[in-house]
Amino acid sequence: MPLIPEEPQIHESAQGPRTAPTPRPVPGPRPAAPSRPGRPGPPRPAPPVQRASRDAAKPVPPAPPAAATPQLQLIPASAQGALDAAEEAVDLLLDAGRAPGDVLVITTGDPHPWATHELSFGEASYWAQHDAGDDVFYTDAKVAERAGARPVVVVAVNGGPEPAAASALSVAHARAGTLLIVCGDPQRINSVLGAGV
Prior knowledge:
The chain is an alpha/beta fold. It is 27% helix and 16% strand. The chain has helices at 82-95, 113-119, 123-132, 162-175, 186-194, and strands at 71-76, 103-107, 137-140, 150-156, 176-184. The chain has a 5-stranded parallel beta sheet with strand order 1-5-4-2-3. Helix 4 (162-175) links the parallel strand 4 (150-156) and strand 5 (176-184).
């Protein structure tokens, strides 16, 4: 390809060494950088400090708590498959970034195997894990009333008498902060919910 007279030819050696692009800084406040060696001059000034006004020192009355209703999600499953559906729901929550301590699981029939295992060490140890709040906690409808609130409550309607299901759903609704997931037979759940839960 012939050179056009207006375009000077630049040799690769004149372009200088190629370097990787400099990573972009993370936004946010940073302390003032000291002057770099070989660069005379004072260090950059620190960012200005915001002073609180007199009004900012006055306490602000808290807003009245809003009656938050958790989002309800129904996962259809048979009584025999409700526990598996609840386990899958917990796995999906954790995979989506939910902290394990955000989740409470309540069963209406047979207790979850984890609860059975942990109760074998005594009730004090079992409830201490609940109070620590750093892992998914499994309980059953008989003692669910003792469990504290968590952002997400999953109910496995895996059998048990109607009053146990009604009690579990009522407790779950009261304990759930943002999301209530109910796994079980939709017809049974709707009949329990329709009974005033």
